[in-house]
Amino acid sequence: DSPEIKEEVFRKDDRFLTLLKDVYVESRDPPVRVKDGGGEHLPSKQEEKRLTKLGHLEGLDVKKVPKGKISLVEALTLLNNHKLQPQIWTAEKIAAEYSLELKEVNSLLEFFIPFAVQEFRKETKKAITSHKPKQLT
């Protein structure tokens, strides 16, 4: 607030100005190196996403996935649907429903088969005979 300090701050010092005019700064960026990302890539545009189709299993999985991909719960669901009703859940319908390539859906249905749990009636169960372990001599 003092006028003397304000005057000192705003006063130009000719000696410092001449020294400042003699300063020359040259700046150079380091050469740009292209790094091998090891297969990694940055997306050039924002990936299009779709909402998942989970029904009553919604709380178990992610909510959005990129188009052309499916979540784990969706994969298990569509494999089970195809197994139970192959006439309704064809590869073409699955590809359209989940925004997938038909070729990938055919591979998925060919190479991934959900487990089938079979329960045998007691009458048909075969008894497992136990063997006595052999004595090592």
Secondary structure elements and pairings:
Layout: H1 3-10, H2 14-22, E1 49-51, E2 64-66, H3 72-84, H4 91-98, H5 102-111
Antiparallel strand pairs: 1-2
Largest sheet: 2 strands, antiparallel
Q: H/E order of the elements?
A: HHEEHHH
Q: Give the structural class.
A: mainly alpha
What proportion of the residues is helical, as a percent range?
Answer: 25-40%
Shape: elongated
Q: Cα distance, first to last residue? A: 105 Å
How many DSSP E strands?
Answer: 2
Tell me the strand percentage band. under 5%
> Which strand order does the major sheet show?
1-2
Key terms for this structure?
137 residues, mainly alpha, two-stranded antiparallel sheet, 35% helix
Q: Can you describe this structure?
A:
- The chain is mainly alpha-helical and 137 residues long.
- 35% of the residues lie in helices and 4% in strands.
- The chain has 5 helices and 2 strands; from the N terminus they run ααββααα.
- It has helices spanning 3-10, 14-22, 72-84, 91-98, 102-111, and strands at 49-51, 64-66.
- A two-stranded antiparallel ribbon has the order 1-2.
- The model has no long low-confidence stretch (mean pLDDT 76).
